[in-house]
Design brief:
Distance between the termini: 39 Å
Largest sheet: 7 strands, mixed
Radius of gyration: 13 Å
Shape: globular
Structural class: mainly beta
Oligomer: single chain
Strand content: over 45%
Number of helices: 0
Order of helices and strands: EEEEEEEEEEE
């Protein structure tokens, strides 16, 4: 397993941007798929975006065109650039190294 630490969350106004980072405890070069999930209060955890080792990206429809996932294998870090944020993006955001390593989460709050 790999330990993951998210950072970059915070409070932002609607329309603003944030960049989340997920730092891994070891090389992610051999980890095929990395992803971001989020969980809003009273809701199930949902997929936000994934990226595989070939650089193929998959996004949830609700964030398509606004969020960008990327990975830097040299820095053992995965990023989530979030633009045009909406109040409904408010959630705890979690990083995942497939198949089953999770970070502790970082809170993102978007005010209207």
């Amino acid at each position: 397993q790999v330990q993951l630490v998210e950072s970059g969350g915070g409070l932002v106004q609607a329309g603003g941007s944030l960049r989340l980072s997920c730092a891994a405890s070891r090389s992610i070069f051999s980890i095929n798929v990395m992803g971001w999930y989020r969980q809003a209060p009273g809701k199930q955890r949902e997929l936000v975006a994934t990226i595989n080792s070939a650089g193929t990206k998959v996004y949830a429809g609700s964030v398509q065109g606004r969020f960008i996932i990327s990975r830097d294998n040299a820095k053992n870090t995965v990023y989530l650039q979030m633009n045009s944020l909406k109040p409904e993006d408010t959630a705890v955001y979690y990083c995942k190294a497939f198949p089953d390593s999770w970070g502790q989460g970082t809170q993102v709050t978007v005010s209207s």
